[in-house]
Amino acid sequence: MALTPPGQTLAPVLMTFFAAILWGLWWIPIRYLEGLGLSEGQVAIAGNLGAMLATAFYLILTRQMPRLDRRALCGAVLVGVAVSSYSIAIVLTDVMRAVLLFYLAPAWSKIIEWAFLGQRWRHSSTLTLLLSLCGAFLVLGGEVSVSQIGPGDILAIVSGIAWAIGAALVFTGGAAHAMSVTLATMTSATLVAAGYMLAIGDSLPQAGMMPAIGLSLALGAFFVLPVMALTMWSAQRLTPALLSFLFTLEILSGVISGAFLLDEVFGVVQLLGAILIVGAALVEVAIALRARPRHAPGLL
User: Fold this and answer.
1) 43 partner at 20 to 30 Å CA-CA among 36, 104, 196, 294?
2) Has residue 299 been placed in a domain?
3) What is the pLDDT of residues 54-111, one digit of tens each?
4) What is the average pLDDT across 201-206?
5) Locate the EamA domain: which residues (predicted)?
6) Are 89 and 97 in contact (CB under 8 A)?
7) 154-184: buried (b, 16+ CB within 10 Å) or exposed (e) per residue?
């Protein structure tokens, strides 16, 4: 399998850093919209729908016909499952707990690359995996218990697994425009959110909630869409494990913003965890930049 050459790796790495920071702040508008009276399902479906409609509008304006092969389409659908599951999990459980359980994704990604993508399991793989997971554990104070698993926790785990598999399929899929992948992703996320609402018997928003719904649609179009497009663009160019490790930086922005806005603890232990997470990401980046594969996949 051909990976991206060093000269073409730095840009998606930087874009992923930026996207990860923004995803780490995504809990803020979600919690705000919940405070306006929207349920977790309503927040998820409106935000994803706004991003989906804006993507479709962009493709129409630019006269682009969405084209995806089966592998890339399946990957986009699974990433959509991950997006909706994560958005709902943030409402149903603690922000930090949801983030930690989602970020078992690097472990799944490493296993997928080794078992299904033909990548060798190196000592560096074990090192980055341990650094990332230990760092995530410390960031949450070393007090996370899995003895009581709630619906939000399950959704966060499902989100991480779906992300890892979806990213692998998008990376190994055929050539496709990033916005086509994004459209499939947001359509999947919208349908998953709608299915969740039907499954729990969630009611449609009342007339008085229309301003909140409008705000949620706008956030989908102007926040979710750009960040998701960057994510999908990077997912086509970075290996699943590298992508997932870089996205562990979302833990930092999520935890730090939570510490300031929710008075959540961020002391010496959390700082040590943050250093481990950044260290894991830097190791993966260094390995990727030093790699010299045969050729780069044509993705656009």
Assistant:
1) 104
2) no
3) 999 999 998 888 888 888 899 999 999 999 998 888 888 777 777 777 876 667 777 7
4) 77
5) 13-140
6) no
7) ebbbbbbbbbbbbbbbbbbbeebbbbbbbbb
Contact yes or no for 239/3 (Cβ under 8 A)? yes
Q: Rounded CA gap, 20 and 166, in Å?
A: 17
Give Cα 4 distance to the centre of its chain: 21
pLDDT of residue 8: 53
Q: What is the pLDDT of residue 235?
A: 83
Q: Is residue 298 one of the residues assigned to a domain?
A: no
State the DSSP string of 5-40: -GGGTHHHHHHHHHHHHHHHTTHHHHHHHHHTT--H
Q: CB of 220 within 8 A of CB of 47?
A: yes
Q: Which domain holds residue 119?
A: 6-290
d(CA 266, CA 253): 12
Residue 2: pLDDT band with limits 50, 70, 90: very low
* Structural domains of the chain, count: 1
Residue 290, pLDDT > 50, answer yes
pTM, whole model, 2 decimals?
0.78
184's tokens:
């499939």
